[in-house]
Amino acid sequence: MINFKTRLGYLLGVGVIFYVSYGFTNFLTAQRENIPEIIFGWEQHIPFLAWTIVPYWSLNLLYALAFFLCRNDVQLRHYAARLVLAQGIAVLGFLLFPLQISWQKPETTGISGFLFESLAGFDQPYNQAPSLHIILTIVVGAFYWRRFPKWRLPLYLWFGLIAVSILTTYQHHFLDLPTGALVGFSVLWLLPEYDIHLNFLTSSQNLTASHHRLMIYYGLGAIVCILLAYLGGAWLWMLWGAVALCLVVLAYGRGEAIFQKQPNGKLSAAAYVLGLPYFFGARLNILYWLWGKAKSAVIFENVSVGSITATKGFDAVLDCCAELSCYNPPKSYRQVLMLDLIPPSSTTLCKAAEKLATLQQIHSSVLVCCALGYGRSVAVVLTWLVATHKVANLNQAIMLVKQARPQIVISNVLRQSILQAAKLYQEKIK
C-alpha cells in the first residue's frame, strides 16, 4: 500500500509544476504585444452558462483526488507521468503559439460568482491553445474510466460537461478544444496504461523496400492534408487526417505496436481516436472490395480465411490484422499481428501457423482473419497447410486456397517467406 505522505508528495510535486509553469507562461504572454485571437463566426452564438463553472472547477478536485485513489506505486507514477507530460506539451504550445480570448463575461453572483472570481485571481485570458483544461479532462478522465468501470456512463457525462464548460464559461474559443483533445489523446498514446516507455523508441521489424514505399505514400498523404488545412474553416479538420496518416507512417517505420491493439482485440482508445480518419477509410475499403463477395471461406476442414468483419459464428479466431479492432471476438481469440501490404516475415508466419495448428485441433470452426481475407490470413493458412503436410507442396496449397478465394495474389517474396516459415515450423516439432 502507498502511504498518505507519498501520495501527498506526488500531488504537491505535480501541483507545483502545474502552477509555476502555467503562471510563468501567462506572465510571458502578457508581456507580448498584438496577441492574436482566433474566432469562428458561429462562436458568437454560444450562450454563457454561469452554472457550468461548477463542472469546470470540479476538474481540479478530480485531478487531486486521483492521487489518493491509485491502487499501487506503478499506477501513481504512471498518472503523475501523464500529468507532467501533458503540462510540458501544453506549455510548449502556449509559448510557441500564444493566443488570447477577449470576450467579457457577464456579471455573476452566488456560488458561480465566487468561483469566477477565484478563477480570475489566478487565470489570465492567455494560455489558450491547446486547452490545458481539455488535455487534463482526457488524462484525468482516463484514470477514472479505468478505476471505476461500473460508473462509466455518469463519468462520461460529467467529463463531457467539463469539456463543454470551457466554451460556456467563455474561458476558451472552439479551436482550443480539438487542439487540446489532440494533445490529451497523444499523451495517453505516448504513455499507455502501466507502460512508461514510448512505443517507437525501438523498432520491432526489419524495414524493407515495401515499408519505405508505404511510408512515403502515407507521408505524402499527410502533407496533402496539411496543405488543404491551410484553406481554413472546415478544412482545418484535415489536420486530423494528417495526424492519422502520420500514425500509419510510424507503424510502418516502427512496427504494429504503434496501433496498440490489446489482447481483447480492440485498439487502445488513444490510438483509435488519433487514427480515426484512417480507420474509417480502411472500413470503407473493406466495404468496397467485399461488396457482393463472401466475407469468409472454408479452406481446409474446419479452417477458414476471411475479413476481420466476419468473426461472428466462429468458435475460434486467429487475428492477423494490426490496424483494425476485432469486435465481439469469441472466447478463443488469438493474435499474431501483421501490417497490411507487407509480406510477413518467416518468423511471424511460423508463430501464426503454430497457433493455428493448436486452434484447429480443439475447435470445430476457426477463422484466420485480416482486413479482407486475401493477404495476411491467406499467408498464414498457406504456411500451416505446407508445414503440417496437409498438402504436398506450396503450389498445391495455393491452388486449394484459390478455389475459395480466387482474388489472392502470392508474390515471389511471400512464397519464399512461406517456405522458410514451414521449414522453421518443422524444425521446432522435431
Q: Which descriptors would you attach to this protein?
A:
430 residues; alpha/beta; Protein-Tyrosine Phosphatase, Chain A; 5-stranded mixed beta sheet; 5 strands; 56% helix
Task: Summarize, please.
By secondary structure, the chain is an alpha/beta fold. Helices cover 56% and strands 7% of the residues.
Describe the structure.
Residues 366-416 form the Tyrosine specific protein phosphatases domain. With 430 residues, this protein is of the alpha/beta class. It has three domains: 4-190, no CATH class; 209-284, no CATH class; 293-429, Protein tyrosine phosphatase superfamily (Protein-Tyrosine Phosphatase, Chain A, Alpha-Beta Complex), CATH 3.90.190.10. Helix content is 56%, strand content 7%. It is built from 15 helices and five strands. It has helices spanning 4-30, 53-65, 73-96, 110-120, 132-147, 152-168, 176-190, 209-229, 238-254, 269-274, 276-289, 346-362, 376-387, 394-404, 412-429; strands at 296-300, 303-307, 316-321, 332-338, 366-370. Strands 1-2-5-3-4 form a five-stranded mixed β-sheet, with helices on one face. A hairpin with a 2-residue loop joins strand 1 (296-300) and strand 2 (303-307). The radius of gyration is 26 Å and the shape is elongated. The mean pLDDT is 93.
Structural class: alpha/beta
Record field, number of beta strands: 5
Helix and strand succession?
A: HHHHHHHHHHHEEEEHEHHH
Task: Assign a percent range to the helix content.
Answer: 55-70%
Please specify the SSE layout and strand pairing.
Layout: H1 4-30, H2 53-65, H3 73-96, H4 110-120, H5 132-147, H6 152-168, H7 176-190, H8 209-229, H9 238-254, H10 269-274, H11 276-289, E1 296-300, E2 303-307, E3 316-321, E4 332-338, H12 346-362, E5 366-370, H13 376-387, H14 394-404, H15 412-429
Parallel strand pairs: 2-5, 3-4, 3-5
Antiparallel strand pairs: 1-2
Helix pairs in contact: 1-3, 2-5, 2-6, 3-5, 3-7, 5-6, 5-7, 8-9, 9-11, 12-13, 12-15, 13-14, 13-15
Transmembrane segments: 7-28, 48-69, 81-101, 129-146, 153-171, 177-194, 214-231, 237-255, 267-291
GO cellular component, one term: membrane
Organism: Rodentibacter rarus
